[in-house]
Amino acid sequence: MVQHPEFDKAGQKAGLQVWRIEKMELVPVPEKLYGDFFTGDAYIILNTIKQRSGNLQYDLHFWLGDFCSQDESGAAAIFTIQMDDHLGGKPIQYREVQGHESNVFLGYFKSGIKYKEIFQWCGSKSNRFERLKATQVAKGIRDNERSGRARVFVSEEGMEREKMIEIQVLPETGETPLFKQFFKNWRDLYQTEGLGVAYVSGHIAKIEKVPFDAATLHDSHAMAAQHGMVDGGDGEKKIWRVESSDKVPVDPSTYGQFYGGDCYIILYSYKHGGRQGHIIYNWQGADSSQDEIGASAILTAQLDEEMGGGPVQVRVIQGKEPAHLMSIFGGKPMVVYKGGTSRDGGQSPPAEIRLFQVRSNSAGFTRAVEVDATASNLNSNDAFVLVTPDASFSWYGKGASDAERNGTQQLLSILGISASELSEGGETDQFWAVLGGKAKYRTSTRLKDKMDTHPPRLFACSNKTGRFIIEEVPGEMTQDDLATDDVMILDTWEQVFVWIGNEAQEEEKKEAMASAVRYIETHPANRDPRTPVVKIQQGFEPPTFTGWFLGWDYDYWTVDPLERAVADLHM
């Protein structure tokens, strides 16, 4: 019989070892996570004791969570028997069930054991955006801090699970009458005064209305630090693709190419002040599976542990890549293919017609993203590569920068194709036919030196706290940043957009328009007060607005974002 490779590591020395059953395999649990148990999993725990005689004694447990599957439960039992056989039949076996663990088992974990569940509680007066963001936070905790293994429970106020009850903590001599009534002969040693009633507020405190000072938006120290670079991107790098529960090395010749259906781990090493530094980027594709997102978090933590806990960990969502990550590919553009995967034996065949949008950021680094091959996705400020079976085209918008033109040539080299060059306004009939005909797209241009000096900025306007506030959205802008129950302000320097979500409140709409005007008037660069303020409604965005967002999806709001986020919790 073929033995599991983990058996060779079991019971070799005194101490505790823990494995989790994952996809019918034994996966070792890092020591720092001992005592943390996911209620949807099964575990095997081996305690090895060295006796005075020098012989080893074993206690072998398998633990079953309340929500573990029948397959995982069976696998845990089988692995336990096989490990017992491997250790010569010496272990004493224990079956542990969540909530009914033996004293022997509980004694291993001096800080107690923790069942990993996540509760999201929604107040009756919370709005849709708060619920959506809470759901996204819960999902992020599950996928990145709990390795995708914890269960998430969403509770509405008044509909809580029976396990969730209000707990009042009372000091000695400060017991309330409600507490005392449960004791037949309660006697006070000293008379208590002023502590007899416990209040639970059911009202929202009145909040003084304070006008928002739009001038504060011009200070952006946090944003200045957002794009900090530890070096010029010329350090050493290793890249792995996440496959099931393992990381598989990526061919160095394809470094910088990412598939939206995959997750990747990038280890970057650099010298700083004579010392070695490390950054681990955990890149998660927009179409990657829930299992792989969870596995990428586990593998990132394991790699960090293998390196002594010294590396800086950075979780990167597709479309939100920091400038430093984009800088490490030797001056070549970071290429992101639409969906699909690059794993061996499962490579996604490319579509017959492909369109890549090439755009540089304010730091001068370039990204090439595959978008839907339609004319409406063109943009006068960018460069594009159109690939077809018969011919390929490189298209340069009137506002395309030198960096984007160079990035286009490098993309052609990466794709291994040659292309006919087209300038905006000089397109051929064949070019338009491949894109399904002409369509409106963003045609207004901005000089790139202006964009470097005045990059676009996105602000969220809200009165959720009772006061109207405006906060800047950090990092690269994506369509996901547009909150449907808020008003957003997009400053592109030559004009200011006020985007109104379908669920935005009337006060937010009024305040946002006024704030946009005050924002221009108070700008320290003495902006022209006649700068246009453009008001647009969700679902009716013109190309002059959508063009600022890389890979705009016109069907994004056909499914409610909150419903989509809640559905993701149960995948």
What does this structure look like?
The chain is α/β, with parallel strands linked by helices and 571 residues long. It has 5 domains: 5-112, Severin; 115-156, Severin, CATH 3.40.20.10; 233-349, Severin (3-Layer(aba) Sandwich), CATH 3.40.20; 364-446, Severin (3-Layer(aba) Sandwich); 454-568, Severin (3-Layer(aba) Sandwich), CATH 3.40.20. 22% of the residues lie in helices and 26% in strands. It is built from 13 helices and 25 strands. It has helices at residues 70-86, 103-106, 128-145, 177-180, 221-226, 290-306, 323-327, 402-415, 429-434, 448-453, 506-521, 543-546, 561-569; strands spanning 15-22, 25-28, 36-38, 42-50, 56-64, 92-97, 114-122, 151-156, 236-243, 246-249, 257-259, 263-272, 275-284, 312-317, 334-337, 354-360, 366-371, 383-387, 392-396, 420-423, 457-462, 469-472, 487-491, 496-500, 533-537. The strands form 5 sheets. It has a 7-stranded mixed sheet, with helices on one face. Strands 2-1-4-5-6 form a 5-stranded mixed sheet, with helices on one face. The chain has a 5-stranded mixed sheet with strand order 10-9-12-13-14, covered by helices on one side. α3 (128-145) crosses α6 (290-306) and α3 (128-145) packs parallel to α13. It is globular. 31% of the residues are buried.
